[in-house]
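Self-study notes.
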Amino acid sequence: MTKSITSKTLPIAAIATAIFALTAATSFAADNKTLSWEFGDGQAHGWQIVSGEVGFYDGGMASATYETRDAEQATFLARSPMFRLNGGGGLKITLKGGMGKRLPATARQVLAKPRTSNGGPMGVALRRVTDDAYVLFFEKSKTHEQTITVAKEQLDKLIERSHDEVYTLDLVDGLHGGWGHLPLVRASVSATPVDPLPKPPAGFGAPARHLFLGSKHGKLEFDKKELWATPGSKVSLTLFNSDEMAHNFILCQPGDKVANELGEHVMGNLAEMIKAAYVPPDPRVIAHTDLVAPGTSDTIYITVPNTPGEYPYVCTFPGHYLLMRGVLHVIAKLPEPKVDVLKPPMPGDAFRVTVTDRPIIVRGPLHGSGPASICVGSLSGAQYAFDPARCIVAKTWMSPGGELVNTKPAWDGRGGAFLQMMGQGRFSAGKDAKPLDVGSGDVVPDFRGYEIGDDGYPSFHYKLGDITVRVRVVPAGDGLDANFTLKPAPADATYTLGETQSIGEAAEQGTAVKVGANFTVHFKTK
């Protein structure tokens, strides 16, 4: 196992400074700075171009050039310098170009699709660096210029979780076609910049991920009880200390008692341990920071063990080991991040449609689902749109807060624009999608209407040739179940699976599954 750091002895004066610097304790987020970027001058101003080619037009930063802005190209992702929210105010961004498309849950999902598509994501997101999660995302609700504002009170909810969390703003353009471009004109956020990380040790290479760990003020707790990494990967870890006392971070070999035994060794050998920054000379110590004084930080570089498992981490400052600990999960596939703090801010609060105690149905134009879409909000937060022209479930999205659509673009003033999905998109049917084939040839579906059941969920009725189809979509498990009934039972019907869909054990996109008179298609939304 390769380690990028080794134990070292610190001068007694340095240890004393860390221990007794209580009067110097300051919060990293205490200065009320505002970070601002304006892109009208054709400069990136420190933003990193993670993917694609950058261009400057329409007064902002965007993908490619004005002439090729709507053509197929490499997925574009531009990323701001890292920062921490400081509670001094809110966030504001101004965008031009086309209407936003759904954004996935993480940046790595954006980068997993290296080329744009006519249903790709397009918007700006607040990215939590440690787990790559898009905790807040902005998708335009109209063409041309639009400014979206997030109030201080909303950002304060994130700070309540951790004042040491590190974020970036990501500009994403994975869409091509009409208005498939998104210039970012300006952005500002009440935040404190994070200093550039120190260079890795010689031969270490570039870390695959940056992990950030903080301390909960006055609670003897890390701000994260869990971290994740893949076996053998290279990561950086930064410990911020905005508490009133010194802390450290020690990553240990797996074992239920390891953290306790290291902490107890420190307590029983204080005179010796103070010279070693409270890092025990134990082979079970994989990696560690220095002792971090209040108001400071330390960054280390770690080669993650090759063996999957649960690797405890602990602060061994005397007495802290009892409470200040967590687990690094070393697993082959990183989990989906948990995002449950903020709801996506959409313009036009008065026009938001939100599910409360009963399913809600809204009809109107929804991009990708037709001018007379039937949008259905469920009690589980799994939402969908039924296109009566094609007689298919055209879109699904997940909205933990119960939001269904923002009707402002379609209904306010002169209207005429699309309803806007509220939440994170999970599935969007292709333009020519015809998943159900009942053997009647290339017939046009004949929509006959829908009826609402006692539970508030609609059942849709249509005909495909001589076959009458009834489909009822309800929440189930990690998404939605579309329950089909076909009369009379066709002899040779198939259903071709789309993204996120499954029938029984069959789940591969593009698979034509043979079906009978009654079958269920599951749409995963979580």
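Second protein, same conventions, sequence then structure:
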Amino acid sequence: MSPAPRPNPKPLAPRPLHERVLPFGLAARKPRHFREMAAAVWENRDALGYAWQVLSRGVCDGCALGVAGLRDWTISGPHLCLTRLSLLRLNTMGAGDPAALADVGALANWDNARLRTLGRLALPMVRRRGEPGFRPVGWDEALARLGARIRATAPARLAFFVTARGVTNEVYYLAQKAARFLGTSHVDNAARLCHAPSTAAMREMTGTAAASCSYTDWIESDLIVLFGSNPANDQPVAMKYLLLAKRRGARIVVVNPLLEPGLQRYWVPSDVRSALFGSDFVDEWYPVAPGGDVACLYGVLKALLERGGVDTAWVAEHTEEFARLRAVAEGMEWSQLEAASGLSRAQLEAFAATAARARCGVLIWSMGITQQPEGADGVRMILNLALARGWIGRDGCGVVPIRGHSSVQGGAEMGCYATALPGGLPLTAENAATLEAQYGFPIPRGPGYTAPAMVEAAHRGHLDVLYSVGGNLLRTLPDPDWVREALTRVPVRVHQDILVTDQMLLEPGEEVWLLPGKTRYEQDDGGTETSTERRVMFSPELPRQVGEARAEWKIRRDVAAAAWPERARLLGAENGQALREEIARVVPFYEGIQRLSRTGDAFQYGGRHLCADGVFPRPGGRARFTTPALPDSTAPEGTFHVSTRRGKQFNTLIHAEVDPLTGAARDSILIGAEDAARLRLLPGDAVELVSATGRFRGRIFLAPLASGALQVHWPEGNVLLPRDARETSSDTPDYNARVRLERLPTP
């Protein structure tokens, strides 16, 4: 294979001189790390001692990269990021006044940021239909009434949803066990809304459903490719690893419709040189069209085949069905791939040339890949590229579905999933029988409702009880007006949470219950989290009692026990240690969780690499290539493809009205300069996006964005999204829509 000239993929704007010269990015648009650190100290001034315990002893409840105390598992030195500091107040605030919920009409115009100022949920409360608000009740009454209602409800009409907000493995595990104890398989978690397509594709092709490598491999890699991912905003600790990789000579490639400013340049506050003058990250940017990922990667594979860039010896020894992929890729016309991907042949060949030069590579993706109808196919194509280059199971290589929320990796592994049992096992009769023998009670056969299907069932009147542990389905799912209708049709809604959210205030079908949970740091006997790199970490109990809040796993256990007290002993979970011992028995690759007991205790299941040395947990030990179909890229004339994005926020918790990385306000509509010029639109112009579902009013914001694409913030943009568009293999919602852009009259 002979080296070829490196075509220019997409010109990157040079860094302005003032950004390179003035220290701390004083003249740049960027997060003000040190100012925000000071603001966090001030916000938590009434509980600084406890705040320090959380930071110095607890496992981070932000993104899923995972640190224990201030310790980073990968590199030396302390770790503290703004995501964690932004969430700190949730763990230090005091009890709210129950009287504030006595008349919810007074809160009707409050957004969730303002509702958070009410403080922690402190007491069990109930509101019946026709009543103005909630009244406190004792735990005994709450458990007795809920237990009686659940016992009287057919299991097929019960559903349980668990969020990713600070939830521990213990909560996930007990939630699924309690649901199945009650006879229902309708139990699901927030991973359904993000990386469920990754799970489906990875299990099919590699036999695993987690990152194949460790963060150390990022640092040691020659090439890191970010597909539909923005770690500068969503997982800021990752920027430290990318910085070290860059300094070792790695190239960083971004495949995304938008060139995120935080990926182009970023100031890493824990690195003196970077904190002072910033660091450049992206070497190559490929502005793929929305929905064009499959075509893009077929083009890259076609170019790799043409230039001899496939590791044929590794492929022959460790994979199957490559010949079919070769035939499909070679049979595609370049014009077809260019039209579908939004990239030129030269750009696709440039990407392939970069991949061919790299001895080792790490491929990372997030919701820009998964939250679309062809999400699993996008993941399959990323895996095809990794397998073609032999980039799984060895140092400096790997595939990484990067997680955005703490311990969401553990949700499905604990079995809190409508389509899997503990250990991620498929829902076969044999696996169910094995679990029955371990639990001592019948396990319902077949899959349950996924999170979107729960809301669909609620709208159709097929649910009598919907029990949510955290989360806010009203804000996380497409078409919020329809979701509102669905939730109000459920006779009994139970919200187990630490804070008030607007979905709790919706009119009851018959009654709505609020059950106050403890945070992960207050959890009795401590708890564990599983990070993106499969590290299971222990977070000790940091005693603090807010009102009558109880550990979240204990609430789920006690509600189930109240429904069927005569067999409640089968739930087990006498304490946190007993729960972890059971997890180790039921989920064998979590062996060792029962020995974790203090800050810093951890283990990485599978070791540094899954599929080490190219041996895959599939028949014959081989990975499998797949050949997804090209999605239909035709679109109605005069429309744009709008995608949803994150700003300064954590899930639906909005922390700032203006994103410090982009400068975009919450109502901004991001558009490329060429599209704006064609429509004679200027920054700040008022426009309205119109889809088949709804309308969104906002203002034009120019951004380096692929032609024909728009972006709006989530969850505000959910009003545009069709509720029935899903990724077929996982039931993950489609967070994109086709829209018309209409100019609004100037006031």
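Instructor comment on the second fold: The mean pLDDT is 93.
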